[in-house]
Amino acid sequence: MGRVSSGVEGLDEMLYGGFIPERSYLIAGGPGAGKTIFCMQYLMEGIQKNEKGLYIALEEPAHELRQDMQSFGWDIQRIKILNTMQDITSGMWSLKAPGQVGHPEFNLKTLVKTLRDIMGNYQPKRIVLDSLTSLKVLYGSESHARRELLAFINYLESTGATTLITSELLDEKTTMEEFLTSGVIKLHLIENEGERINALSVQKMRGSNFDKHMRPLKITEKGIRVFNNESVFS
Ligand SMILES: Nc1ncnc2c1ncn2[C@@H]1O[C@H](COP(=O)(O)OP(=O)(O)O)[C@@H](O)[C@H]1O
Ligand SMILES: [Mg+2]
């Protein structure tokens, strides 16, 4: 079976070819670790291959996202952004109410409903949900959140798209989303002698072998690149 290329130089080799199609993967890391850039780069890779992309923005308004991504020279006009933030300035795709984060009826269930509507005339091969953390707070109990998240992931996989879900990681605790997704990639920001080093590790990859080492990563004006022949600590 073919793999889905990540678009991140050096990463497909670590994944023994890339992501397995029609599955969902977790991109976890602390703030500023590069999750949003990683996911946009993944969608832009799809655009290169004529695969439609959908970005579900739960964290920042679409106009800010466009601004942030401009420095990489990416034409993100070609990606559909499902904008769940209050964003009065844009003429972009917006969710029909109840669609806004903060709206009492906004949750994973209503999000699936909205996605079903969208899929009627737009079938993306690549989907990004950024981030799950902002949705998890809606649930009072861990078991409720887990049930809804599982249903959400099952729905995504039934659409035929390969999905990346970002998750805010503040400590080394294992989160439920790590169990529910097919694979987990962690983005690290490491303090080393007063210097901050970006790194990436693959934590889990169902159905495939993968590189078990943590590898250095660089964010430049070209995007994210992984150095899969180097180690973080020499
Ligand atoms: N043009 C750029 N060149 C180099 N580094 C950049 C550039 N743009 C952003 N960054 C780095 O990327 C980080 C933000 O990445 P982002 O994907 O938004 O993080 P996250 O979504 O994990 O919070 C910034 O803190 C900065 O270090
Ligand atoms: Mg982000």
Mean pLDDT across the residues is: 89
Tell me the strand percentage band: 15-25%
Broad structural category: alpha/beta
Main beta sheet strand tally, sense and closure = 9 strands, mixed
Verbal overview:
- The protein is an alpha/beta fold.
- The chain has helices at residues 11-14, 35-48, 62-70, 108-119, 133-136, 142-158, 176-180, and strands at 24-29, 53-57, 80-83, 126-130, 162-168, 183-192, 195-205, 215-220, 223-226.
- The radius of gyration is 17 Å and the shape is globular.
- The chain starts with 10 loop residues before the first helix and ends in an 8-residue tail after the last strand.
- The model is unreliable at 87-99 (pLDDT under 50).
- The structure holds adenosine-5'-diphosphate (ADP) and magnesium ion.
- Adenosine-5'-diphosphate (ADP) binds next to helix 2 and strand 8.
Provide a brief overview of the structure:
This protein is α/β, with parallel strands linked by helices.
Key terms:
234 residues, alpha/beta, nine-stranded mixed sheet, binds adenosine-5'-diphosphate, binds magnesium ion
SSE inventory with pairings:
Layout: H1 11-14, E1 24-29, H2 35-48, E2 53-57, H3 62-70, E3 80-83, H4 108-119, E4 126-130, H5 133-136, H6 142-158, E5 162-168, H7 176-180, E6 183-192, E7 195-205, E8 215-220, E9 223-226
Parallel strand pairs: 1-5, 1-6, 2-3, 2-4, 4-5
Antiparallel strand pairs: 6-7, 7-8, 8-9
The chain binds adenosine-5'-diphosphate (ADP) and magnesium ion.
